Each structure stands twice: as C-alpha cells, then as structure tokens.
Amino acid sequence: LAPGSVVLALGGIAHRAVVKAFGGRQADYKFAHGALHDLAQVRLLDSYHCSRYYTNTGRLTEAMFRDVVAAARELLD
C-alpha cells in the first residue's frame, strides 16, 4: 500500500489481520466501530462487518456504515 493509504477493516478479523500485517501489537490497537488507528504508513479505520448478524441485530445500521465510509473518504482528501 502507498503511504497515506486508508484501510477500512470490515470486522474484527480484518482489523487483526491488518494490524498483524503491519507488525503492530493487537493490544495497542483496539477494535471498535469508527476507531481510527495510525499504523506505519497507513491509517486503519474500523467498522463492524456488514453481515446479517450485525445488521439484523441493529449493531450496524445503514447510517453507521455510510458514516464510516464517508470518514474513510474524508481521510483521503
């Protein structure tokens, strides 16, 4: 990835994989919806996964997902 890139992690598994790929310690980068982390040369933005489990239970709403995607776009500007 190019320096200044933004990675939008969809779920905790993706979050942990990105942290590991950049040599970070999981304890230093806690997953939370909307959380932003600086890792080496990229920024990691977390979102709950857009699976039926999270959408049907209301843990992730359409508005929440739109907001996190908009935040990712803003980080690129």
Would you summarize the structure shown here?
This protein is an alpha+beta fold and 77 residues long. The protein has helices at 12-21, 52-56, 62-76, and strands at residues 6-10, 36-39, 42-47.
Notable traits:
single chain, three-stranded mixed β-sheet, 3 helices, 39% helix, globular
Could you please describe the fold and organization of this structure?
The chain has 77 residues and is of the alpha+beta class. It has 3 helices and 3 strands. The chain has helices at 12-21, 52-56, 62-76; strands at residues 6-10, 36-39, 42-47.
How many individual helices?
Answer: 3
SSE-based structural type: alpha+beta
Query: Kindly state the mean pLDDT as a whole number?
Result: 95
Query: How far apart, in Å, are the first and last alpha carbons?
Result: 17 Å
| Rg (CA only) | 12 Å
Strands of the largest sheet, in order across it?
Answer: 1-3-2
Please give the oligomerization state of what you see: single chain
What is the N-to-C order of secondary-structure elements (H for helix, E for strand)? EHEEHH
Percent of residues in β-strands: 15-25%
Shape from CA axes? globular
**DSSP E strands, number:** 3
For the largest beta-sheet, the strand count, sense and barrel status come to:
3 strands, mixed
List the helices and strands and how they pair.
Blueprint: E1 6-10, H1 12-21, E2 36-39, E3 42-47, H2 52-56, H3 62-76
Parallel strand pairs: 1-3
Antiparallel strand pairs: 2-3
